Amino acid sequence: MRFAARALAQAWWFELVLPRFGLARLAARGRIRRLQKLARRFHDLAADLGGLMIKVGQFLSSRLDILPPEITRELEGLQDEVAPEPFARIVEQVERELGIPIDRAFRSIESEPIAAASLGQAHRARLSPGIAADLGFEQVVVKVLRPGIEQIVEVDLAALRRVGRWLSRVRLVSRRADAPALVEEFATTSLEEIDYGHEAINVERFAADFADDPRVGTPDVVWERSARRVLTLSDVTAIKITDVAGLVAAGIDPNAVAAELARATFEQIFVAGFFHADPHPGNIFVTPSAEHGFTLTFIDFGMMGEITDELRTGLQQFIFAVAARDARGWVVATQRLGVLLPSADTVELERAITALFDRFGGMGVAELTRIDPRELEQFALQFSELVRTLPFQLPENYLLLVRTISLISGVTSALNRDFNMWDAVDPFARTLLNGGGASTVRSLGREAVAILSAVARLPQRVDALATRLDRGELATRSPEVEQRLRVLDGSVRRVTSAILFAALLIGGILVRPGDEVLSWVLLGASLPPLLHVVLPWRLR
What we know:
Layout: H1 2-20, H2 24-29, H3 31-49, H4 52-61, H5 69-75, H6 87-98, H7 102-105, E1 108-109, E2 115-116, E3 120-126, H8 129-135, E4 139-145, H9 149-168, H10 171-174, H11 179-193, H12 196-209, E5 216-217, E6 230-234, E7 239-240, H13 244-249, H14 254-272, E8 274-276, E9 284-289, E10 293-298, E11 304-306, H15 309-324, H16 327-337, H17 346-360, H18 365-369, H19 373-382, H20 384-389, H21 399-415, H22 421-433, H23 438-471, H24 479-511, H25 516-525, H26 527-534
Helix pairs in contact: 3-4, 3-5, 4-5, 9-11, 14-21, 14-22, 15-16, 15-22, 16-17, 24-25, 24-26
């Protein structure tokens, strides 16, 4: 909590207060150094606390697409380097969960873990001959929850809920996201993640979704040696997906891996509606295949996301609009998804998105980083009011979706900085438009019914509109004008507060020689208007 409070206070001071006093250049000068120091402190804190804090660090360390390498390097160790539990405690946990001695449960088990994650750790083992003969494989990986992790997660969630309540009182945040609701969404998935029985079901459901896809693989569940806190899976370890040197040595093109990862992610989100929500580099292997070149093998299915049919339809419309560079379709899709604020000026937004598609559409991450900053500045000036207000919000149930897309974007950038996500979007969108998948057919059917229903109601709506015109009851709104009026109103209020502050301050100084008590009263009364001028956000 102390770390969160200091980080928020630092962001408030350098990113919001100093720019108000014309010191934006001073604040920007040391930004990388400050973030680097903050990342280093968080790395040490997360490694010490473990639990859910590790997952936050893993997420940030994978954002190679938006965070500078000076920051991600400070957090990289959190992906793979977590202190393991003593083997004796792991044995106790396994025997307690399976109800049999360790030497009866497995033919052998290695004492050194192959991975120590935030919530559990994994050990290689060999199945007993009888079970191995039935299943057709002997080498397995045994995942064991850290003893006492439930209590650690409970404390972590309590801290995150408190930070969520803090953020809910900051208007700058609350108008764009319901922070407590997002924390609760994360809490639900985190509690599911410490139940290996739930994870085993997820593995088999994901495997069924991709049963006909040779490029996507999963481990097999050994149900006879699994329980709530112990999960035994076939050993599928191979080349880590961000090990570019290892991929090249195996004759695998990293760019092809990036394209296949993007395609598999689109399939999960836009077709299956059931997606891996923790796809950081430690959870995806690349397995060489003589027949298909390679297979993407996913592990760790504790954190999964599910998408409703309605949301999937909206996402499909969004990807169609992106692929077609259709600004109007993009705006309509974002409205349907609930991402646009109600006050958004859709006409101005459509103009801005059209300009973005015309100039920057189709560019990869590397190309965007090479754009002349003056060109970006010119775009920002052209749409200054829109850029300043940014009329977007993060609705509930989007946290895992945003996390997944962010992590995948980071991994593809790590594989190839020149990888262009647009190249993966276009063919996938065409596949959907050509009827790829039963879900798309159902979506088109629902869309047709909705259109017919709207057409049937059209005469009544036209008649009602004509009636309101006759009565002079028709009202119009201009979000841009309303926003400018709100800005003007805020400016007037701050100027008034500044004048009041100056008057009280000068009055307190002038009367001090004759009446010290009144002087202190006036000086104290000047503080509230000063805070109103200085504070860049308003508390609810």
